[in-house]
UniProtKB/TrEMBL annotation:
Residues 20-378 form the SLC26A/SulP transporter domain. It comes from the Bacteria. One of its GO terms (cellular component) is membrane. The chain crosses the membrane at residues 21-41, 47-63, 70-86, 92-110, 122-140, 168-187, 194-213, 241-267, 325-355, 375-403. It holds the Pfam family Sulfate_transp. GO terms for biological process: transmembrane transport. This is SulP family inorganic anion transporter. Keywords: Membrane, Transmembrane, Transmembrane helix. It is found in: Membrane. It comes from Qipengyuania vulgaris. Coiled coil: none annotated. It is a multi-pass membrane protein.
């Protein structure tokens, strides 16, 4: 359970620091608009996403079991976070995240890191697909520049709400959103090492600042972003509220554990390393306790940001810590610039994120699955969209484990990960 930073610092050098610093800055540029977009999509203040990237991102890198894991807010939490805020307010979310952090700490100390690998892959793919659908639909309001009341948390009422405000669609916002999605997808394929998602958001925001595309910005809707971190504090709690929020806390803890370990596996394949799963769970627990104390969101390892870190040369946890420090410096000295980001482009960023989460290139493989596994995948996705993520995970996992036992499969198979890099693993 020893953090990786204690291992990597034994033979650390100034040359490695220079490479890590460059990688940290690169990841921070990606994390900044994405953190704001995730917070807005979750129904939280935009600054909450930046606080999460700073506080949780630093803790995950400092205490984690992966050399290159980057932590922060991720799209996987949007569905459950939006529902908690809608039903229990923002204090309810802070309490839920604290509880999830304690659950993750306990799981790490009980060495439960390897148990998560027994969750059926069809269930993981199913709720990931469902989350991607909900994220994409939830962005249509800002994507199209529509005005109206806040959308409900439930999927079908959300569609009804969007239909009711269809008369307020802004053609300029739609044009910007469609152009941003097309540019992100095409340019990313042509030159994958360039952070096109960030550049497209910045360029569209510059166009708005110059008066070329009059659309709503972050600060125009939500006010100016703060230029520092808030003082830490505990939300007000009650026994009844803790009981009511426990299922959501378990869901957040489960998602944080799953996504962080998937991300760590991706990182292992990229650098030829081997993460320490229990140290990673402990880091996730500590991060999800620290983040809500400063008003932040739930956090976990972020697969795309971790891959960006590795591609930029990051090889130790120092890169992730620098990423958090750079986001903090931007908050201190350039908060108005972050507030000038335009909402249609941020919505486009999350639409592309949802498309990437869905892994559309894998449908041919999915349709070749055994009928029972394909039905489990689609059923979990449908339950995630139409019912509840907690129900989808619980029911899907029970059915999946029953299917595995009926086939006599005792050992958990290896998870599929969305990146395929070679390299021999090494434990260090």
């Amino acid at each position: 359970m020893k953090p990786k930073i204690l291992t990597t610092l034994r033979d650390y050098s100034w040359s490695q620091f220079g490479v890590d610093a460059l990688a940290g800055v690169t990841v921070a540029l990606v994390a900044l608009p994405l953190s704001i977009a995730i917070a807005i999509a979750s129904g939280a203040p935009p600054a909450a996403g930046l606080v999460t990237a700073i506080v949780a991102g630093f803790v995950i890198s400092a205490l984690g079991g992966s050399r290159v894991q980057i932590g922060g807010p991720t799209g996987a939490f949007i569905v459950v976070v939006y529902g908690i805020i809608h039903d229990h307010g923002y204090d309810g979310l802070l309490i839920t995240t604290l509880m999830a952090g304690l659950i993750l700490l306990l799981a790490g100390f009980l060495r439960a890191g390897h148990l998560i690998r027994h969750v059926p892959e069809a269930v993981i793919e199913g709720f990931t697909l469902g989350i991607a659908v909900v994220i994409a639909v939830s962005q249509l309001k800002d994507f199209a520049g529509m005005t109206g009341p806040a959308l409900p948390a439930e999927f079908l009422p959300k569609l009804e709400g969007l239909w009711a405000m269809r008369q307020s669609i802004d053609p300029v916002s739609v044009g910007m959103g469609v152009s941003a999605v097309a540019a992100m997808l095409i340019l990313r394929r042509l030159a994958p090492r360039i952070p096109w998602l960030v550049l497209v958001v910045v360029l569209t925001s510059v166009a708005t600042a110059l008066g070329l595309a009059p659309v709503e910005t972050v600060s125009a809707r939500y006010g100016a972003l703060p230029d520092t971190l808030p003082m830490p504090s505990l939300p007000k709690m009650s026994a009844d509220l803790l009981v009511a929020l426990l299922p959501s806390a378990l869901t957040i803890a489960f998602l944080a554990g799953i996504e962080s370990l998937l991300s760590a596996i991706v990182a292992d394949r990229m650098i030829g390393g081997a993460h320490r799963s229990n140290a990673e769970l402990i880091a996730q627990g500590a991060a999800n306790i620290a983040s809500p104390l400063f008003g932040g969101l739930p956090a976990t390892g972020a697969i795309a940001r971790t891959a960006t870190n590795v591609n930029a040369g990051g090889r130790t946890p120092v890169a992730g810590m620098i990423h958090a420090i750079v986001v903090f410096l931007v908050l201190l000295v350039a908060a108005p610039l972050a507030g000038a980001l335009v909402l249609p482009a941020l919505a486009a960023l999350l639409v592309v994120t949802a498309w990437t989460m869905s892994e559309p290139h894998r449908w041919s493989d999915r349709f070749r699955l055994p009928k029972a596994d394909l039905a489990l995948l689609l059923g979990t996705a449908a339950m995630t969209v139409l019912a509840d993520l907690s129900v989808a995970i619980a029911v899907g996992t029970m059915i999946g484990l029953a299917l595995r036992l009926s086939r006599g499969e005792i050992e958990a198979p290896s998870w599929h990960t969305p990146f395929r890099w070679g390299g021999d693993k090494r434990e260090d």
